[in-house]
Amino acid sequence: MPIELFISGKNWRLSLAELTAYLKAREIKFEINFFSKEFFTLTFENRLETSVIDALGGTIKIGEEKTKFSTKIVKEAFFDRKKQSQKQLAELLASSGLVDEMDKSAEKLFFGVSIYSSENMWHPLSGNIQRFIGSKVKDELSDHEKKSKFMGFGKDRKLAQLSHVEVLKKNLVETKSEVLLCISKEETWVARTVAVHNPFEFQKRDVYKPIQRTIFGMPPRLARIMVNLSACTPGKVLLDPFCGVGTVLQEALLARANVVGVDVNPWCVNASNENLEWIRREYNLQNAEFRLLQGDVGKLAEKVGQETIDCIVTEPDLGPALRQVPTGPYAEKIIQKLEPLFFGLAEQAYKVLKKDGRLVLVTPYIITRSGHSVSMPIAEKLEKTGFKLVKPFSEEMFAKNARDHEELVSMRSLVEVDERHKISRQIHICQK
Ligand SMILES: C[S@@+](CC[C@H](N)C(=O)[O-])C[C@H]1O[C@@H](n2cnc3c(N)ncnc32)[C@H](O)[C@@H]1O
């Protein structure tokens, strides 16, 4: 059964939650074999389409497993510098078929090697490992009488990893020329990059859309992750009742949902309208349907109709823009002041959602001056309203031999800390 490797974005828990929610919503069967802060390995019944990467906000690269061996060999080869283990590693690489697959049509072949590891102890050695694999690939290519250029890095680079931009610019996916070495405590995978995240597309939707609002703006990548967490699939109706300039709505439109946006501020309703028109033109989505309405969240059910919505994805007001990290009491005060708005939303959301419909909601999460976190008691309110909380991870997602996933399975929400802001986001998923 095919094994695929996923290189995650910065917030790996969020990346893994998005990926699994996306797969589950499409009834794609999978098992998580291994996860770590840099990469995951999943088994599928069939190969995943590589275009999936464009639909995910939190996955940087997807690789196809070529071979797998015990990490003991890598340890002996690089920590103990055993010649015999280095030879064994070179043979394993040669028999993996990686070099055979590389596109040799150009006069000179560009190739790259990136090293990912579950443990930091590999970081100081990753440059050596990368050069070792690079030189083996180069030798093999010259055996094929092929000239090649190995993409090295500047000395200042901390990790021996090519960025998604480098992979894109040198067409390493198309020429099948990026090797991934993913090292865990026990096993090491060798893979070929089959898909890479395109940051330019997300950036375009962030900075080139006609109307922007930087203070309250949510990055499109996070908006896409939240849309995926809501189990939104093409044709579903997705609502953002605090739509602002329409970042969530634009990502939902690209996910082929029919979208409805509501905001109390008429300027926002117009801004969303302009931005969604732009998305429709820019991405040739002539048939995409959207509806934008001005109104207060307290009257949501009256405005959009009861049981008309499949998914709600939203980030209401998260509090004032703070200059300094707040004290505990001040953080509590900020959150208490916002509670009526969120509690009101919970009740209205329950009314407008169809049965089994999902709500993905951001609440403020504040790390205070003393390092404690203050959050909103929204889970209790949601449950009281009638919602069932959806945990981001469940036991059945993991392979029988997967390890250390208790912490993930016990999680009830996801936290996204953005260093630039004093107020972070806590993401809750629940179902009617
Ligand atoms: C944080 S912003 C949403 C940002 C949006 N996710 C984006 O990236 O464009 C919150 C929005 O909620 C709207 N809002 C505040 N109170 C509201 C209420 N009572 N009913 C509806 N909308 C409200 C504000 O006008 C603001 O546009």
Describe this structure in words.
Helix content is 35%, strand content 26%. With 432 residues, it is an alpha/beta fold. It folds into two domains: 3-197, VC0802-like; 204-431, Rossmann fold, CATH 3.40.50.150. The strands form two sheets. Strands 9, 10, 11, 12, 13, 14, 15, 16 and 17 form a nine-stranded mixed beta sheet that branches. Strands 2-3-1-4-8-7-5-6 form an eight-stranded mixed beta sheet. Helix 3 crosses helix 4 and helix 13 packs parallel to helix 14 (378-385). The radius of gyration is 24 Å and the shape is elongated. The two termini are 35 Å apart. The model has no long low-confidence stretch (mean pLDDT 95). Bound molecules: S-adenosylmethionine. Residues 216-218, 242, 244-248, 263-265, 268, 296-297, 315-317, 341 line the site of S-adenosylmethionine (SAM). The site of S-adenosylmethionine has 19 residues, from helix 10.
The portion of residues assigned to helices is: 25-40%
Q: Given this structure, which CATH class of the largest domain is correct?
A: Alpha Beta
Q: What is the CATH H-level superfamily of the largest domain?
A: Vaccinia Virus protein VP39
The chain-level mean pLDDT equals 95
Radius of gyration: 24 Å
Instruction: Give the overall silhouette.
Output: elongated
Low-confidence stretches: none
How many helices does DSSP assign?
15
Annotation, overall tally of beta strands: 17
Which CATH architecture of the largest domain? 3-Layer(aba) Sandwich
CATH names the topology of the largest domain as Rossmann fold
